[in-house]
Specification:
Its EC number is 5.2.1.8. It is built from 15 helices and 4 strands. The chain is mainly alpha-helical and 400 residues long. The N terminus is likely disordered.
Length: 400
């Protein structure tokens, strides 16, 4: 698949959000094979917007409302930054000195300190490695047998989902913030240690429960504000990173972490968000990708790399979303956005619409990794809630 779009005026993920044009021209639906994604009609390719050319340039996108409140201000820096690459997770060695993790970030200087540290580099490298493990894989693709650790984590997701049934939403007139969520989260706090302890396979690792638990508790939203956002999602990945630091999950487990565990986590979070009307933390999602999530777009774009038929513009085809949103996280997220947001897609999700004009999923994935670093890991309002202990260290001189 060519790395660059042959059309000279096609938009790039590296283009400024203010100047990238929309490709959201509706196309008539057609039938697609549920196995490979190819069209079953005689059409040579997916029905999609006509290619852009210099002779018929697309009109510049003019949203009817302002884009996401926290739209980026450092677009050029993101364009020029290197694409984050996978890094192996250094396994901690005894003697261990576990500690209850704490918040440390309160200023841009703290952000710079973290992202330039070994902890920051290896954490971002872990996200990139997880993304790489999902490359060109459907959710239903067979994987190696699940380890006991991953099987237990999947059972944890099932348990947390059952608690929603046991603690139904209360009558509530507000759009956001059903108070029943506080009861759900209180139960998580009460029973959380019993969910973590089975992961620790030796007496030597037993004390790590106190360090792991805060990451787990912070992975599902804030009970005081009754909200959820990319910071909570990042703490869930930090929880998995800590398990990797302890050697409890290994690189060969990464595909299962993405296509089994993270899929289950995303499914659970969507139910929590809808049942308890969780408020989007911050403003309304990073760059307007989603009110709550960022990472499934990274993993989901990796899944679609080198797909023979589905391209970034395919998100505008309803038949594609209907048939494949259960197989690819990126499509799962787009389908959810279209379900909960009404109106013209280009107006309520301008960034997703702009990204759909990118030539290849490889470019989308690379751009999203850079955006995640710049718009999540380098933002004080998000990272001020991130936790540091012995496994994700704050002091660079003590790292690994």
């Amino acid at each position: 698949m060519p790395e660059h779009c042959p059309c000279p005026s096609a938009p790039s993920l590296n283009s400024s959000p203010a100047t990238v044009a929309t490709a959201a021209i509706p196309a008539p639906p057609e039938s697609f094979c549920r196995s490979c994604g190819g069209p079953t009609s005689d059409a040579a390719s997916i029905s999609s917007p006509p290619p852009w050319s210099d002779s018929s340039p697309p009109p510049a996108y003019r949203p009817l409302r302002a884009p996401a409140i926290n739209a980026p201000t450092n677009t050029n820096a993101i364009i020029l930054s290197p694409v984050p690459r996978p890094l192996p997770v250094p396994v901690a060695e005894p003697p261990y000195h576990f500690e209850v993790p704490m918040k440390r970030i309160s200023s841009p200087d703290d952000i710079q300190r973290f992202n330039s540290s070994s902890s920051g580099r290896h954490f971002l490298g872990f996200v990139a490695a997880l993304s790489d493990s999902a490359r060109s894989r459907k959710i239903s693709d067979p994987i190696s047998p699940l380890t006991p650790i991953i099987s237990h984590l999947l059972s944890v997701m099932e348990t947390l989902d059952k608690w929603i049934d046991e603690i139904p939403p209360l009558p509530h007139s507000s759009r956001y913030g059903n108070p029943a969520y506080r009861s759900w989260h209180e139960k998580l706090s009460d029973k959380g240690i019993s969910l973590v302890v089975p992961l620790l396979t030796s007496d030597e690792l037993g004390p790590a429960a106190d360090e792991l638990l805060p990451y787990l508790l912070d992975s599902f939203g804030n009970p005081s504000r009754i909200d959820y956002g990319t910071g909570h999602e990042t703490n869930f990945v930090a929880f998995l990173f800590c398990l990797a630091r302890l050697g409890l999950v290994k690189e060969e487990d990464y595909t299962a972490l993405v296509t089994r565990l993270f899929v289950a986590y995303l499914r659970l979070m969507r139910r929590l968000q809808t049942e308890y009307c969780l408020e989007p933390a911050g403003s309304h999602g990073v760059w307007g990708l989603d009110d709550y999530h960022f990472i499934p777009f990274i993993f989901g774009s990796a899944q679609l790399i080198d797909h023979k038929y589905m391209k970034p513009k395919s998100i505008h085809n309803p038949d594609i979303l209907d048939n494949f949103s259960t197989e690819y996280m990126y499509l799962t997220c787009v389908a959810f956005v279209k379900k909960v947001k009404k109106g013209v897609f280009a107006e309520h999700s301008p960034m997703l619409d702009d990204i759909s004009g990118v030539a290849t999923w490889n470019k989308v994935n690379s751009g999203l990794l850079k955006m995640y670093k710049a718009e999540v890991l380098e933002k004080v309002p998000i990272m001020q809630h991130f936790l540091f202990g012995s496994l994700i260290k704050w002091y660079d001189s003590q790292i690994f």
